[in-house]
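Hi P.,

Sorry for the delay on this. The queue was packed all week, but I finally got your sequence through. Input first:
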Amino acid sequence: MNAIVIAGGIPLPEDPLYIYTEGRSKAMLDVAGKPMIQWVLDALSEAQKVENVIIVGLSEKTGVTCAKPLSYVPNQGRMLANIVAGVEKSLELNPRQEYVLIVSSDIPALRGEMVDWLVEQVEQTPADVYYGVVPRDVMEQRYPNSKRTWTRLKEMEVCGADINACHVRMATEHLDLWEELIGNRKSPLKQIMKLGLDTVLLLLLRRLTIQEVVERASQRLGINGKAILWPWAEAGMDVDKPHQLELMRADMENRLAETPA
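Then the structure:
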């Protein structure tokens, strides 16, 4: 399966990370001596089930490396446009491939075995979209100070993962809807509003399980969706704020210290 790494984000002056990036790419922030995206590329290099890697939003000039064949696509200016351009490049590389991984460049703790695990989930159950969530207890056991935004379900609280998968046809269908959902990706409540007032109320009352949310979303959006319940916090530990950047810097320094010389 091909992996599309989304790396087009450049924090604006009002963004909390601007003091670190100063107009440069967020993906290139230093984390334990490497650009943040390089840790993600290292994980994709380790993954046995990844064939090609496509970086959207950076160029060869960055000097990042990957053990898998690496392609670059220019930043398209919007998240959805970047994903669509990445899928188009993936189809150019392998027209017969049906699914792609969509990977954020700001989850440096990701590991190769986690990537392979997600691909296995896709191989086992065909669907249009695979949306990952990390349970609160999983996240807080691994990263007690992560300060994620939680969606409260009947049986658990979850946050979104930053590595997901989809069928390639999703890059040509429902684009207006995807644009709105992706635009509200940092606000679960705004995303859920697209599923109808009844769903919002049931969620606020914690009356829906994760499977019931998936079923309602699939019916409302006209797709076959599948929730991926991650057993690893690393899939959802992204870097949006300074304290998360410092947390991940310390975490990756610890990983380096534990790696045999």
